[in-house]
Each structure stands twice: as C-alpha cells, then as structure tokens.
Structure prediction request, 219 residues.
Amino acid sequence: MISFENVGLRYGIGREVLSDLSFQVAPNSFQFLTGPSGAGKTSLLRLMLLSLSPTRGLVKVFGKEASTIRPQQMPIIRRKIGVVFQDFRLLDHLTTYENVALPLQVRGKMELDYRQDVRDLLDWVGLGDRMHVHPPVLSGGEKQRAAIARALIDQPDVLLADEPTGNVDPPLARRILRLFIELHRSGTSVVIATHDLSLMDQYDARRLVLNSGRLQIYD
Prediction:
C-alpha cells in the first residue's frame, strides 16, 4: 500500500532529518512507529500522507509514485488514508456527530445516506451518548475517540495515528489501542506513532524505530 525506497528528507539547506528510509506498509498490516522526541516520526507520517514531498528517493502510495500523482488525483488518494492527529483538530462549533460526518459532507454526500453509519461508528468508539454535544465539553479521551471515528468514517485502507494516546491515562490508552486492533482485524492497515513503550508491549506488532533520522525495523 505504501512503500519507501531510499527516501531522504531535509528542510531548506539544513541536514537531512530523514535518511535512506526503505520499508513497506503491507495490506492488512499493523506497525508501531517509535523513536525519541525529534526523531522524525511526524515528518515520516506526513510523507506517507503525501503532505510532504521527499528530497530524494521514491515514495509509492497504492502503486502510484508520489511525484507523478496529479493535483486532481490527490483527494482520491488521500481518502484512502485516515489520519488521527495528536491535537484532535475537531471543530468546536460542530457537534461530535457533525465532526465525524464532515468528511462525507465535504464530499457532497446526503445525510440520509450516511446518518446511520455515523451513529454506528460513534457507538463503536463509545460515544453514542455524546453525539450531540460540542468538543469543548468532551474529555480528552472522548475527543480522541471522536477524532478516531472521523478518520474512519470514509473507510480508509490505511490509518495513520500520531501519538493517539499521548493525552490520555493508561486505562483509556489501552481502550484506544483495542479500537485500533479491532480495526486492523477488520482489514485496515494501521500505523501508530508513539513513544509509549508500555503501550507497544501490549500488542505483538512490527516496530519501525527512528533514531537520528534513520530507520530500523523489528518484525
């Protein structure tokens, strides 16, 4: 689904922040992306999302070389990739339901066609009774689960999560991890960027370890 071949990234004229990355995200796979603060995890996720272009090397997404994807094709490709951001990025003036439904609304879908899907997904993440409230009254864990639901509503082939448990307590972190595991078992490839070793120890999965911009892989 996603492949990197000798990829390097630098900002401006500085040194490379990522160097010689070669790996693949296979269909129906699960991997943790980890490394110390400043190792380049978020930059790597942005390359995978195609919101950054590599300085050198080859990035392919769903069989297409990133540099050859035309601007009009980009929204179609990105709809196959769900993203959960550490800072949630929910819109405070929209309800939980409306935040989750927003990607479908932007695409021009009629509410009658997606209403039940949004409700079912909110039930699945444990927010069925919070769908009509606004983000300011949600807890950090509830906001994170709403963000996960929004990333999943378009049924992506790949889910990228940037420190999805960084702002929640350990019991809720385990619950969120279980949601990702269930999602993976349903057929979605999952990449979780995290520095939480205790979280990774709870699930036997591939580890992509970034250190000083270089990648080591532990299957």
Observations:
- The beta strands are 2-10, 16-25, 30-34, 56-61, 64-65, 81-84, 158-162, 189-193, 206-211, 214-218.
